[in-house]
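Second opinion, please. Pick holes in both lines of this record:
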Amino acid sequence: MMVQTFDLVGIGQWFRDVTGNIEIGSAILLGVPGLQAPGAAALLSTMIGATIAHLTVLPRPAFAAIVPGLPTAIRMDRSRDQLSFNRA
């Protein structure tokens, strides 16, 4: 199913591998104390891109990207003190 989905997006199957690696790396970072914010930021960026793809190219509703994006945004907000631009 994902092969057909990424065919519809039109970027290429290499992008499926990149997206999967970002999602796996983000999940790992979410489990490492002190690195939740970067992990959530990477995952949230992926979910935003997926939402845009669903709204513009894919024939399915964007709920599949929005639903996991919401708790990810909450995690990023709660961990924002870990981001370098917030440090004094």
